[in-house]
């Protein structure tokens, strides 16, 4: 443990085994012990950290279809049996009055865990696409029965709050028929609206009357800042990512169905969305093969597609999540048959279970942190953006933020009412999330305001409540050089070992000479901004 009078060396481990140190002002009791990481994603740090073979306890959940009453009984019985891992709530009601149940599965089901992300799965937005509904019930069952036996699942639930909405369209499900692979019976809600065409749209005005189910989702994701989301569908085998719509979509004049010319419509985070989609497809038993469900159906390279490149649509839920709330949502088409016979459900579970878990773990990739005022208080609703990526995101009431990013060097742009805008450079590595704490300065500080100390009280609260110890990237713009003896940090094994460079060494150049490939390119870009100290 280090005190406020000491300086922390935040060690950034890079792919070639090199690390560099950055001066970080700290609060009391902030630990940077490198081999004590509750947040490090199993599987990122080495071989052998995979989920165990999936053998769910099916004694209380058979592979059959559950109508709304049966589903409600199962969810209530589960939360009664596992009160420390589950919490059941409703986000609203369908047109016909059925509850839109959500089950939270987490080590902290009733309270938000400071610094740890909320993620979600939504199933059955189209009532006749029933496989996803059952997969999510079995997902709940697997998570709660594996918490004490599977280290991967324990890590996931200790560091994530997973919200599962098995059926967004229970009225449509009630009108659907088992064994029907195609067709539209039960697809829409009871008023005849397609819920996945009912959300506000960025590219075109959506004049469709908003439905109760849609309004419930909008209110839900406005209250909870979700980082990652998957929407389970049926009728194809592919992971489809935003955008679903395009400003240039035009009807085919010869088509009696008023279909549209398909062309890609890519987001600024296309690299991330492709990675998320590939994560699901590559861990699926069949999806990554890209085989078409039918001879007349399209095939998808590697089992993924851009939504608009498949077919454009207006009012989709995944575009709304991303543009309006900064939540990265992917549409997961998990079965060629929309409502297959119940005896096939076990096969679908076997095909999808690993993908469903690996996908959620991606919420721990990229950058996360806090935006604070000079006194360490959180700044709510600060607006953030990654430079070069125009779709932004915001902080929670606790000042938290998350953004899924691939490894690389980035600049975070931060804006908040009453504060001077900030630009902060940071780096993302593969092994674990980057923690970036940003202190904002008032645009017009009060005349009597005391000069804030370099030590922030929030740092202590972060450690106390979240117990996370990810790699820390200091706000480089606020760091001050030091004239004390300097130390280069070179990672040789775990735990990290610090080795002293020659006293007369040019440390940025010292690290560059020790690096190669991508690592050397990254260090070269940050060379002039590194600060070294004892």
Automatic annotation (TrEMBL):
InterPro entries to which the protein is assigned, alphabetical: CarboxyPept-like_regulatory, CARBOXYPEPT_ZN_1, CARBOXYPEPT_ZN_2, Peptidase_M14, Peptidase_M14_domain
Sequence segments annotated as region (Disordered): 438-464
GO molecular function, one term: zinc ion binding
Domain Peptidase M14: 64-363
Keywords, alphabetical: Carboxypeptidase, Glycoprotein, Hydrolase, Metal-binding, Protease, Signal, Zinc
UniProt key word Lipid biosynthesis: no
GO BP annotations, alphabetical order: peptide metabolic process; protein processing
UniProt-listed Pfam families: CarboxypepD_reg, Peptidase_M14
Catalytic residues as annotated in Swiss-Prot or TrEMBL: 333
GO CC entries: extracellular space
Signal peptide: 1-21
UniProt cross-references to Gene3D superfamilies, sorted A to Z: Carboxypeptidase-like, regulatory domain (2.60.40.1120), Zn peptidases (3.40.630.10)
Domain of life from the UniProt record: Eukaryota
Cofactor(s) the protein needs: Zn(2+)
UniProt keyword Chloroplast present: no
Protein family membership: Belongs to the peptidase M14 family.
Alphabetical list of PANTHER family matching this protein: CARBOXYPEPTIDASE M, PROTEASE M14 CARBOXYPEPTIDASE
Name of the protein in question: Putative carboxypeptidase d
Lineage summary: Eukaryota, Metazoa, Ecdysozoa, Arthropoda, Hexapoda
